[in-house]
Amino acid sequence: MSSSSSFTGGGGGYDMPWVEKYRPTKVVDIVGNEDAVSRLQVIARDGNMPNLILSGPPGTGKTTSILALAHELLGPNYKEAVLELNASDDRGIDVVRNKIKMFAQKKVTLPTGRHKIVILDEADSMTSGAQQALRRTMEIYSNSTRFALACNTSSKIIEPIQSRCALVRFSRLSDQEILGRLMVVLEAEKVPYVPEGLEAIIFTADGDMRQALNNLQATYSGFRFVNQENVFKVCDQPHPLHVKNMVRQVLDGKFDDACSGLKQLYELGYSPTDIITTLFRIIKNYDMAEYLKLEFMKETGFAHMRISEGVGSYLQLCGLLSKLALAREKAKAA
Ligand SMILES: Nc1ncnc2c1ncn2[C@@H]1O[C@H](COP(=O)(O)OP(=O)(O)O)[C@@H](O)[C@H]1O
Ligand SMILES: [Mg+2]
């Protein structure tokens, strides 16, 4: 893999976060989201980058893609021809008016078809005032300077910016895609593991590669061995087996057992949000009748809504279990 071989960081790199150590440096090495990645590859090859908005959930490669693209387009000119502004930098109206404008006015000699690039990471956290100022700068300097914005939700970018940009959508990575990347890192770092440990990492990451790599590294540095047990200790999420048991008990008509299982989790200190998030994922993958699964998901969705509105009590979760039990009764009678 060129991404791992192109890494030149210090020695064993023992203190380096793996998310950085194994961040792909070329667009081709970015895993998943084939449509998005191939569009970016065309731009990397042909130049003339349009203004871009990359949007999608965290840990799917948006920042990585922009950085790789800018490096491929500008090579040795990267330093003087790229302005990177992260969420931690001040990006209020004044910065847009001054810093970005000054950069846009700066003369840099580039090959034809190449432009200076302003990278605005997590652009959805910019105020709409700053975005308005940005939009004008974008317009005035479009001959020499292009913008690449990354965000979780493109709807938080003001309409006039959206309409000046090509939108590239990213979605969660599949379990297979995450597994593939984990294997590369496992091999390079010589991490001992059992397959169930990887399954646990993939389960907790839920399509987020950053989370997967961080959980892998945390498990390894804490226990030197990746198995299910260690992963759930490190990730501090309810153990899926425990939650799965609750679902099975409901399906077996053992409502009281399900409730006491829930009580145990609650007393271990897991928040209702943690519990219900895991519960939903378990139900989604549970081998059960389609009709019943849909009912279960519906009820879990409603309970999730009540919890996120603030009613996150033990009673609320028990109420959900009873709704699930009733749905099962109804399905059996039908
Ligand atoms: N599609 C991907 N392919 C390979 N590695 C990825 C991918 N997405 C994320 N990563 C890993 O996770 C880290 C964080 O990714 P990043 O691009 O910053 O995500 P975000 O979409 O939140 O901007 C990267 O440094 C890289 O190690
Ligand atoms: Mg990012």
TrEMBL record:
Its main location: nucleus. SUPFAM superfamilies: P-loop containing nucleoside triphosphate hydrolases, post-AAA+ oligomerization domain-like. SMART domains: AAA. Keywords: ATP-binding, DNA replication, Nucleotide-binding, Nucleus. It comes from the Eukaryota. CDD domains: AAA, HLD_clamp_RFC. PANTHER family: REPLICATION FACTOR C / DNA POLYMERASE III GAMMA-TAU SUBUNIT, REPLICATION FACTOR C SUBUNIT 2. This is AAA+ ATPase domain-containing protein.
